[in-house]
Specification:
The chain is mainly alpha-helical and 188 residues long. The chain has one domain. Helices cover 84% and strands 0% of the residues. It contains nine helices and no strands. Helix 6 runs parallel beside helix 8. The longest helix has 32 residues. It starts with a helix and ends with a helix. It holds the Pfam family VTT_dom.
């Protein structure tokens, strides 16, 4: 574990530009490997600190959202799948405001691109989509980068245990959380 920590520090110090590029690339390919977005953002706080980690996470999230925008426009089967997820989670005719989406982005168990799809449905063009995506991604990037920077103060063993707990809780509570959110949204 100490060797891994030394390796990360050495890459960060000697190859900051390459490490930054790789971090942004991980944000972009994250959906392919089903890596939770909060884990990537927290990793940015651990490796790069608050300011640099937050900026890189925002760039990565915006690139990921931009790619999603073009995929949603070109792949109808993809949007059909997201519509089914939306109906299952939020109901048939539920309209989500930008504040709802921003708060739901903070919930680690909600599919990031499902929320991007809600933004996609509400916007008329790419410029409007990008503005709303940035508005909803900023709080998430700030909060989880701060958590990641705080975690970096832990020993490597405690940090590893913390990440394993987050992944386990995310997996266990995923279905339960969906049901609670659906109940909450239908009661308001």
């Amino acid at each position: 574990m100490d060797q891994l920590e030394q390796w990360i520090i050495s890459i960060k110090e000697s190859h900051l530009l390459i490490a930054s590029f790789l971090f942004i690339l991980v944000h972009v390919i994250r959906p392919i490997f089903f890596i939770p977005v909060i884990l990537i953002i927290m990793t940015g706080g651990v490796i790069f600190g608050f300011i640099h980690g937050m900026l890189l996470s925002i760039i990565g999230l915006m690139l990921s959202s931009l790619i999603f925008y073009f995929l949603a426009a070109k792949l109808p089967w993809f949007t059909t799948r997201l519509i089914k997820m939306k109906v299952r989670l939020f109901g048939e005719d539920r309209h989500m405001t930008k504040q709802h989406i921003m708060l739901l982005r903070l919930v680690p168990f909600i599919h990031y691109h499902l929320l991007s799809f809600l933004i996609y449905e509400q916007t008329d063009d790419l410029k409007q989509y990008n503005h709303l995506s940035l508005y909803t991604a900023l709080p998430m990037a700030i909060i989880y980068t701060v958590i990641g920077q705080s975690v970096s103060q832990f020993s490597p063993k405690v940090m590893t245990i913390f990440v394993i707990i987050i992944l386990a809780v995310s997996y266990i509570l995923r279905k339960d959380t969906r049901q609670k959110i659906k109940q909450l949204l239908t009661s308001t």
